[in-house]
Write the structure tokens for this entry.
Amino acid sequence: MGIYEGKLDGSGLKIAVVISRFNGFITEKLLQGAQDGLVRHGVPEANIDIYRCPGAFEIPAVVRKILEKKKHDAVICLGAVIRGETPHFDYVAGESSKGVGQLSISSPVPIIYGILTTDSVEQAVDRAGGKSGNKGYDSAVAAIEMVNLFKTI
Ligand code: INI
């Protein structure tokens, strides 16, 4: 019997972060959390590459280009899709999660889904450094764990 799990040691890892500008007052907080989580777990600041794109819809395409370059140990996706009065929410949230999900299954390196999909601005604020923590920080920790888990498989 073997039990395999990833250590939370980010030393030497090279991480790509894809962040969308839409709802930037939320996504910038997620980015701060992600940078904090990476650096606190040993990822050198110089090894973090940040890629900005317009909205969550564009995130999967950026991830695909990053994967082609084979330069990173993991890719973290950060975005905020907040439900409005229009059905746009469902399309954007659906396409971004489907796109990132599909890439993640076939990717040789872990891809982390740190895209908030919330019913209200308040719920997004809660998850971007508010009372429910910071999903960016959580995504950083998940990325490091997954990279190290992959190494054991
Ligand atoms: N993009 C988001 O990241 N979050 C949203 O809440 C959002 N809403 O609600 O419209 C959003 N739309 C823009 C979309 O991601 C694309 O950038 C745009 O459609 C251009 O392709």
Q: What stands out?
A: The two ends are 14 Å apart (CA to CA).
